[in-house]
Amino acid sequence: MSHVVWTQWADLEVPEGFVKLSPENCDLADGDLSKITFFVPKYMSGKDGLRPTARMTNLKTLHLLMAGYEEALEFVKPGVQLCNGRGVHNASTAELAVGLAIASRRGFDDFIQAQDRDEWLHQSYPTLNDSKIAIVGYGSIGQTLEKYLSVYDVSITGYTRSGSDGSKKLSEFDADLPSFDIIFLILPLNPESNKFFDAERLAKMKDGALIVNVARGPIIDTDALVAELNSRRIYAALDVTDPEPLPVGHPLWSAPHCIITPHVGGDSAAFESRGKRLIEEQLKRLAAGESLLNIVN
Fold first, then answer.
1. How distant is the alpha carbon of residue 155 from its chain centre?
2. Which residue spans within 38-98 are E strands per DSSP?
3. 27-58: per-residue pLDDT in tens?
4. Which residues have C-beta within 8 Å of that of residue 46, sequence separation ≥ 6?
5. Distance between CA atoms of residues 59 and 236, nearest Å
6. What's the pTM?
7. CB-based contact 7:22 (threshold 8 Å)
8. Are residues 201 and 164 in the same domain?
9. What are the residues facing 183 on neighbouring strands?
């Protein structure tokens, strides 16, 4: 069976007989989308990028470039296969998570502000080394993060709902929580994880501990986090926030002990090459009549 494929890449390699569409030859706003059978919304395009599926009357596969798929579910019609981008963000997101942790522990934000003042600020800070670390959400990104952290003198415990892949069960996390120096959040957003880190769990963090969120903003209760940061008892490094984007004047911007990056964990040159390779592999499987990878539904 031939397929009509729309992606953001005009130079994507597709199997013989497949029709390739991209922004160069098919505008999603006013083009004819009725023949598209395999659709890959632009990365980080959100619900706006998914709405054109309403006009794709022959769509067979909706393929996301993100691991998270919760916002796409309402756009999946009966008979449409949903795949996610599991794996393509491992390197970028894990790299940023390590960078955020080091920046926070070693005081990079203070040094940058001092540089803006032409001030030589010689000050001692904690270190990533000798830390007890939790990775909450021990999927492919979490396991990559553990690999990246393994070169440091740290102890690492992963947590998943099932306790798979050598992790502990998430039900055991609360008992261990007060012992951790650094907690990485890399779990999917769903009704169970929404505000998972609430005021009670934030209060259980040891004094001086750091929480790094590279998952989804609503996994942390923002108001409770702001209150803890304003007490200067804990630290936070956030690539995601709730709300997002963070509006002007929001108290997180000025909260002490907090570093914020604008949801760039997966958005790097490393993602670009890996995302394209995944889609090309999926199309080869489609042409060969094989099952696709990363099927969600």
1. 23
2. 38-39, 61-63, 81-83
3. 999 889 999 999 999 998 989 999 999 999 99
4. 71
5. 42
6. 0.87
7. yes
8. yes
9. 134, 211
